[in-house]
Amino acid sequence: MNPGNAQSASHDAEALIEIGRRVHEAGLVPASAGNLSARTTGGVWVTGRRARLGELTTADLYFVHDDGRVEGTGQAGPTSEIHLHRAVHAVRDTRFVVHTHSKAAVAASLLCDELPNVHYAAAMIGDSIPVVDYQPFGSEELAVAVGQALGAERHGAVLRHHGAVSIGDSLTQAVDRAILLDWLAELSYLALASGATRRLSREEMTHAAERMRIQTYSTEE
């Protein structure tokens, strides 16, 4: 396998294994749900089909070249969401993509088209957190929709009847954003289900984002 060099490949594998362990411990990926990717020279590393993220080994990882060729030692093949991962990496110059099956995200997705601004920490994800309309899992339609939802600046999105996607430029940032997005989805669900109507305004969210930028209070490392 030649996805750059042996040292880089080992680092990518270790990072994905650690991300998988952390998001599993956070309760974001039941059983064999969810998938991960890491962008590197010439393609992306992705987790395999039905891989249990909390128990990943190097045999569960595949390298998908930019031309579509697949390399790996396992038998399962790349995740069914390979289109989603490649689409996000094409839209955004980001290192990691984390796709979870967060139950909070699924629940919130049934009640809104965009997560309500109930906490200023949502500014760490973007100017808004969209809910992507349902598309079949593994489809190119879903991949395109997620890429469009993230756009040039958002770091996460909720997928209706499905879960959530977040991105990060480091291992810690990728995990932190996945966990934060799940927490924000839970807050949103609780607020919407209770009928609470108070929201932070766009101006207040913009101000919060600026304060975070100045004080480096963000998921940046």
TrEMBL record:
Record bears the keyword Metal-binding: yes
Q: Name one Pfam family in it.
A: Aldolase_II
Q: What is the lineage of its organism?
A: Bacteria, Bacillati, Actinomycetota, Actinomycetes, Micrococcales
- Tell me the SUPFAM superfamilies matching this sequence: AraD/HMP-PK domain-like
Q: Which InterPro entries match?
A: Aldolase_class_II_sugar_metab, Aldolase_II/adducin_N, Aldolase_II/adducin_N_sf
Q: Name one GO molecular function term.
A: aldehyde-lyase activity
Name of this protein: Class II aldolase/adducin N-terminal domain-containing protein
Record bears the keyword Membrane: no
Organism source for this protein? Answer: Candidatus Lumbricidiphila eiseniae
Domain Class II aldolase/adducin N-terminal intervals:
14-189
Keyword terms of this UniProt record: Lyase, Metal-binding
Kindly list the biological process annotations in GO that this record carries: pentose catabolic process
Q: Name one GO cellular component term.
A: cytosol
